[in-house]
Amino acid sequence: MVSYMETLGSRAKAASREAVTFTTEEKNRGLLSVAEELCQNTNTILLENEKDIQAAEENGMKSALLDRLRLTKQRIQDMAKGLKEIAVLDDPVGEVLSMKNRPNGLRIGKRRVPIGVVGVIYESRPNVTADAFGLCFKTGNAVILRGGSDAINSNKAIVHAVKEGLRKEKLSQDLILLVEDTDRGTVYEMMKLHNYIDVLIPRGGAGLISSVVENSTVPVIETGTGNCHIYVDEWADLNMAVDIIENAKSQRMGVCNACESLVIHESVARQVIPMIVNRLKLHQVEIRGDEKACTFSEDITAAEEEDWGTEYLDAVISIRVVDSFEAAVEHINTYNTGHSEAIITENYKNALRFQDEIDAAAVYVNASTRFTDGFEFGFGAEIGISTQKLHARGPMGLEALTTYKYIIFGNGQIRE
Amino acid sequence: MVSYMETLGSRAKAASREAVTFTTEEKNRGLLSVAEELCQNTNTILLENEKDIQAAEENGMKSALLDRLRLTKQRIQDMAKGLKEIAVLDDPVGEVLSMKNRPNGLRIGKRRVPIGVVGVIYESRPNVTADAFGLCFKTGNAVILRGGSDAINSNKAIVHAVKEGLRKEKLSQDLILLVEDTDRGTVYEMMKLHNYIDVLIPRGGAGLISSVVENSTVPVIETGTGNCHIYVDEWADLNMAVDIIENAKSQRMGVCNACESLVIHESVARQVIPMIVNRLKLHQVEIRGDEKACTFSEDITAAEEEDWGTEYLDAVISIRVVDSFEAAVEHINTYNTGHSEAIITENYKNALRFQDEIDAAAVYVNASTRFTDGFEFGFGAEIGISTQKLHARGPMGLEALTTYKYIIFGNGQIRE
Fold it and tell me: Domain Aldehyde dehydrogenase spans what residues (chains A, B) (predicted)?
């Protein structure tokens, strides 16, 4: 007996085989057609979304989550706009990254190709449905989407519109497949579908991500957890430090590249900590510090050990005072999640050492951690920010959704 | 309580932090020092290996496996030579793959860096111990090695010599850590050590690899399974086809890039199948074919369904006759393991289509599949041949043991 999920897997695999032969022009036409259908289907999508909203309200969903779930005409137009923007991006597929002649005359090239079938497991943000499709489709992949059960009606309506857009361009509708059975069991089955799914990308909270990492036999790309630090070095421009810290903490609190913890060299702590405290008070940020930090301001409460490892995603920040550059690096490498880390310094050697020694996707000198983002890095839309080291690290744009194959041109070569 | 494996993990992580700062010169000196120590310790290593051999003989180990386990003076010299060859290879670490200025003045570079801690799980080939160390060390990684229990004395002696070589160059001896407790439980614990180990590479048979894929929460790179096909197209040069098939099947039978299955276009089947059969008979190769193939030679026995998916690693090959190019692609994409696939054709369009449509790490036109190998591709020594699509595909040389980080140079930038 072939299960529901295996059927989806096998349909996606077949569709992905077709997609490897699409030209960039075909893919761009597909994206524009889908964008058009999303706009055409606005009313249906809104009606279906309303069902999800009502059910969520009845289940007592919190307003912040309700807001993520809710679609509006504007949000649907933004989805369509997102797809049009992806159509404009360069197509990475087909690029030959290198090609060499071997002594025996073999010509060996390394060509960028689609991954095949991408699985995305996410929570109740229906806009991910269109975004993830757009990025996977532009790179010649099929996508299997498993969104939260709270958003199932919205997701079905969006996927229906996407399929309609594909159909009108005579492209396989199996390039997007929604797991409509949102039973918990289907997620676990999806995580074991390594014969069909080439990579699984979880998008959501830490709980979702660790469950996927623990259970999946499909290769996973971990995304999104950011316990980001800013280290104010002995040689920092203190005014710059305060401006950057304010930005990194308060410009948007609930995002993965927001700053969650400060590390301050003790030689500048007495001067800079009160400046930081005053600035962050403007944004109602609660500050938790180690023993030394607390001695520099009455507005700092004592941090517990678990504070150092916490991604608050909220108006809270921790402060640790260290007696050396080395201690700062040690602290950050112990507690960071491999996302974005910054040093504020005017010292040449420390700037370079920080970039060498800190183990993270993005290591900044004298800039806000908030820049770790596909658009800010110039890649365009992203499917997530990878915090692991294999395959892709940092913002994952189109290239992260490709792999390569070796293409070898011979004329009868055999191995001696 | 910190477990034995966690202690190893934490020591490896600490050593890997030191290794990111090593210069190429330091690493090359380390490799030469270790090579020297291996030679100096030849007698001890041989004595310890003899213990393993005796125990294996008492346990009735087969002679082919005994041969893999056995070390000789020559084999130890070859290990040392391998390390010297790695010293000569270009160091990929530190290369800035791209660097761009953003409109706000941020300079964002993508720099190649070590992965961190590499775990290798392998069977009873003690030479893997030195090879894996050499590749990981050259790329600034620490390595945790878990070899087969049959080789434990040999591995201890080799690791002792490696550590001695590191010590003499004042480099951390924790850059190589051997799991000395070869209890089955330590392997499973190793597979769950994702807080310390950044990537796990299993090297061995299909059973070992699938057990690691099923159980590991550490990202895994699958290696080595090769159900490789050669497709003889309607437009093939048949003499070339027979030469290449002979080479790919018989030049070395037990290796992952050997050819295991032939797909023949029916318009040339009558002519080429007897030629192939005659040539392969010279090497005592058993041939199993589908119904059509059997009609062209009495030396072909009937293949079962399971033959199409079998990597024989032996003097056996299967033959399938197809009625079109498309059917050949379909057959190969259904049964191949993503390793190496070849077409023999003089037809331009079919050659390019085959390279486009076949999903495998290495896709050949008119050459033997036996070339999929780090040395043949010009990368030097390899840590394995990846058959998955994430991170690294095909022969994995030094670059596959690196990741990248974004290094960002600012002068006070904050996000609007």
Answer: 12-286, 311-378
In chain A, what residues touch B403 (CB-CB under 8 Å)? 389-390, 393
Bigger pLDDT: A184 vs B331: B331
Backbone angles phi, psi at B296, to 5 degrees: -100, -5
Contact B164, B39 (CB under 8 A): no
**Which of B382, B406, B404 has its CA nearest to residue B394?**
B382
- Residues from chain B contacting residue A356 (CB–CB below 8 Å): 20-21
- Cα–Cα distance measured from residue A201 to residue A120, given in angstroms and rounded to the nearest whole number: 5
**What percent of chain B has a predicted confidence (pLDDT) above 70?**
100
Residue A282, classified by CB atoms within 10 Å of its CB into exposed (0-12), middle (13-18) or buried (19+), is exposed
The reported pLDDT for the residue numbered B224 is 79
Contact residues, A window 382-401, toward B, CB-based 8 Å cutoff: 388-391, 393-394
Domains and CATH numbers, chain A: 4-221+396-409 (3.40.605.10), 228-371 (3.40.309.10)
Alpha-carbon gap, residue B18 to B16, rounded angstroms: 5
The tokens for B38 are: 């291996």
| Neighboring chain B residues of A251 at a CB cutoff of 8 Å | 414-415
On chain A, the residues whose CB falls within 8 A of the CB of B333 are 17
A100, A251, A408 ranked by CB distance to B371: nearest? A408
Is the model's pLDDT at A346 over the cut of 90?
yes
At residue B17's C-alpha, the angle toward residues B15 and B21, to 5°, is 110
Chain B touched by A54 (CB under 8 Å): no
Q: Determine contact: B82 vs chain A, CB below 8 A.
A: no
With tokens 């299997």, the residue in question is: A144
What's the confidence (pLDDT) of residue A123? Answer: 87
Single-letter amino acid, residue A207: G
- A282, pLDDT greater than 90: yes
Distance CA A248, CA A263 (A): 14
Structure tokens at A78: 């933004």
Query: What pLDDT score does B323 carry?
Result: 98
Average pLDDT score over residue span A319-336: 97
Burial class (CB within 10 angstroms; exposed 0-12, middle 13-18, buried 19+) of B59? exposed
Asked if the C-beta of B412 comes within 8 angstroms of chain A's C-beta atoms, the answer is yes
Helix residue ranges, H only, B122-226: 127-138, 152-168, 184-191, 206-215
CB distance A99 to A109 below 8 Å: yes
A60 — pLDDT class (breaks 50, 70, 90): very high
Position of tokens 């913002």?
Answer: A395
Report residue A354 as tokens.
Answer: 């920080």
pLDDT in tens, B231-242: 999 999 999 999
Element spanning B229, H or E: strand B228-232
Instruction: Report which DSSP code applies to B304.
Output: P
pLDDT at A183: 86
| Per-residue tokens: B364 | 């050949």
Q: Distance between CA atoms of A66 and B117, rounded to whole angstroms?
A: 42
CB B118 within 8 A of CB B143: yes
pLDDT for the residue B250: 95
Task: Name residues 190-249 of chain B within 8 A of A (Cβ).
Answer: 194, 198-199, 213-214, 217, 219-221, 237, 240, 243-244, 246-248
What pLDDT does A63 receive?
85
Q: What is the per-residue pLDDT across A218-254, written as a single tens digit (0 to 9) for each?
A: 999 988 789 999 999 999 999 999 999 999 999 998 8
Q: Strand A300-302 and strand B394-395: pairing?
A: unpaired
Q: Is B407 on the interface with A (CB under 8 A)?
A: yes
Token match 């007495």: residue?
A: A270
Query: Between A219, A359, A368, which is nearest B388 by CB?
Result: A219
Does residue B52 carry a pLDDT above 90?
yes
